[in-house]
Each structure stands twice: as C-alpha cells, then as structure tokens.
Amino acid sequence: MLIWLASYPRSGNTWLRLMLHDILTDGQSRPGGRAARNGFAPIVSSRSFIERQTDVQTSDLNDRELNACRRAAHDIAAGKAAAPFFVKVHDNHQPVGAGEDGLFSPAAGSLAIYLLRDPADVAVSLAGFAGIDLPRAVDILCDDHASRSHITRQPHHDQVAYHLGRWSNHVSGWLSRPSDQVLRIRYEDLHRDPAGQLRIVIGRLGLNVSQARIEAAVERTRFDHLSRQERRHGFNEAPAGRIFFRGGRIGDGRRLLSDADFARLVAANGAVMTAQGYAVRRPETRPETSR
Fold this sequence. Notes:
Blueprint: E1 2-7, H1 13-24, H2 34-37, H3 47-54, H4 63-80, E2 85-89, E3 111-116, H5 119-130, H6 134-141, H7 148-151, H8 167-175, E4 182-186, H9 187-192, H10 194-205, H11 211-220, H12 223-233, H13 252-256, H14 259-275
Parallel strand pairs: 1-2, 1-3, 3-4
Helix pairs in contact: 1-11, 3-4, 5-6, 6-14, 8-14, 10-11
C-alpha cells in the first residue's frame, strides 16, 4: 500500500521524510539528500516514478492523458507494494478541472500523513525558497490556479506540472479523506515535540520502533545538523544558488508580512486557518512592510 506524505510546499514534508528514513534504516542513512537518492518516498510528480510504474512515456501525453496515467501509476504502485511504500506529494487532492477524475483513487494507499503549517510561515519560507518577494508568495497561497510553475521557473526536468491551488483548498481537500485514511500532523507540533509527533506517526503505521530509536533519529535530523550538512555537501532538492534548510522557525510570517499581505492571506484562507487552529489576528509588534 502507498503511504502519502502530503503537504503544501514548505510545510515540513522533507524534514519528516528524513526523520522517517532515519528511523526505518536505524540510523544507517545520513542527512543531505540520501533519502531521495536512495529512492525513499519519491515524489509522485516525478516522470521517472510515473514511467517506471506504467511503462508510458509521459512526454507523449496531453494533460488529460497524463492525469489518467498518473492515477494509474498510483494504483499500480499500491498493488505492487508488499510493505508500506512512502511517496511524497504536493498535488492538490481535488481534481484540477470540472469533470476530471482525481489523481488519488481509493485503491491507491490507505493512509495520507498530511503536514500542515501556518500559511503565514509558509509564505516566508516559500519566498526564500523560490527567490520571490513576500507579496508574491502570498499571491500564490491565495491563488486557486497556483501550480509548481508559480514557485519555480526552472525547467521541470524529471517532474510534471502539478496543481496546488490556494492553501485553504489544498488543506481541505486532503483532510476531507475519511478519518481512517488521513493523519494530520501540524508542523508547529512537530517542531515543538518531534519525538512525540513521530511516535504518533509510527503508531498509526503499526511499526514497532523503540523510543530510543525515535529520539536518535530526531537528534540526527535537527535543523542545525541538516543546514550544516547542506552547506558542506549540498542538498539535491535545493534550487540552484539557494538554501533548502533555512531554519524552520515558527512565527516569522506574523512578524514579517505587511498588514496588507496578512489581510489578503486571511481573506482567502481565514476560515480554514481558524478551523485548523491558526489565529487570523497577529501580534501587535511587527514591521509595517514586507521584506
């Protein structure tokens, strides 16, 4: 079966994948991109993943055919997996257009682990990752038509285009799955108590892992360790010339977004922010303009 590691970009997906990989390999892996290079939790928008499952050349397909091919790839991978097979996904759970089948059929995977993060902090992290200003990052989180191409202008290489949509629709889509098919993990909780949140994930997966092994994985994947590893050896998911592990702080968005940008973010996403425990008001002390 497939285990979806799903999130809006810049919400902690890679960090969780590195921790899980460390746990599952009992510390034999090391940070710095090895999880991805070793094939752990490949992203499902990868052309190589789709083509390996379906034996279809993705470059030959139109958008509707590609959507059907991707759905088939998920079903095939799920059918072949004798043990839990982790995959990363940033796609919106909902169909891109009216009348289209969704990418995620009930047959493909029994559990989605959904990483959720305060959208104000997502905007700050996204701006740094994509090399854009904060107003543009907020635009993306408020855009029903946002896609991978809005985040990076670099060639897709081994990834097909994927649909994100606005932050609130992305969250609602994944969390609309039946309760036995989705586990919500808030980035803020993972940041404050990584070992406790990993214990929840491991328990939901039905794996027998000691607390000592979990705590060792947390120590080996601390942000300062990951950042140091990246500066020494690079990281395969970082955009050219930019840093992937920027610090992972909580609360930057509410300090750094301008009043106007924060108001736009709330206007487009406020109902879901409130439902997921994120305040739609901000601290009184803050800069007056975006940086």
